[in-house]
Amino acid sequence: MNRVETVGTADIGGRFELVDQDHQTFTEKNMLGKFHVVYFGFCHCPDICPEEMDKIGDALDLLDANAYTKDAVQPVFISCDPQRDTPVEVKSYLKQFHSKFIGLTGSVEQVRTTCKAYRVYFSKPPKVVGDQDYLVDHAIYTYLMDPDGVFVEVYGKDKNAEYMAEDIAKRIKKFKDTGRAL
After folding, report:
1. Cα 130–89–150 angle (5° rounding)?
2. Which of 47, 63, 92, 143 has a beta carbon 3.0–4.6 Å from 38's, enabling a disulfide?
3. Using alpha carbons only, what angle is made at residue 39 by residues 37 and 44, rounded to the nearest 5 degrees?
4. How far apart are CA 109 and CA 168, in angstroms?
C-alpha cells in the first residue's frame, strides 16, 4: 500500500503592492475575506494564458451557478510583463475574459517581489530591442488563496475547469463548516 503523508504547507503568498486595471493600489490585504484564484501571465501571450484564463472563467461560472458558492471566489490576473502590461493594457486584455477578473501590474521591482512571494518563475528574453515583440517564459499555475490570504491549493495546466470548481467548492464548504461567513 502506498501511503502519502503531507507535512505543512507551501510558503506561497505574502506582502505585495501592485496597481489594478483602474490604477488603484492593490495589496495582499485586498485579498482578505474571500477565496481568490490567482494567475500570473502576460497580455501578449498568444495561447497558454488565454486558455488558462478561460478555464478559470469556466470554473467561476460553475461555482456561481450554485447559491452556496456564488460570489465566494475572486479571480486575479497578475502580469509578469510589467514593461508592456500597463493598467490600460491589462484592462483591455481582461475584456476578453470573465467579467470578475481583477488585473494587476506594477513596476518591474513590484512584479518581481510579488512573483517571488508566490514562487512564480518568469523570464523575459535578455536581448529585446525597442518595440520588438517577445514572449515571457513563466510558470503556468493557478493558486487558490483562502479568505485569510493563506495558500490552499495550486492547479496546473492539467486540471480542467470542472476539477477546479469541484475542488474549490469543497474548500468553500469546509471553510463555511467552521462557522465563518464569506
Report:
1. 115
2. 143
3. 150
4. 31
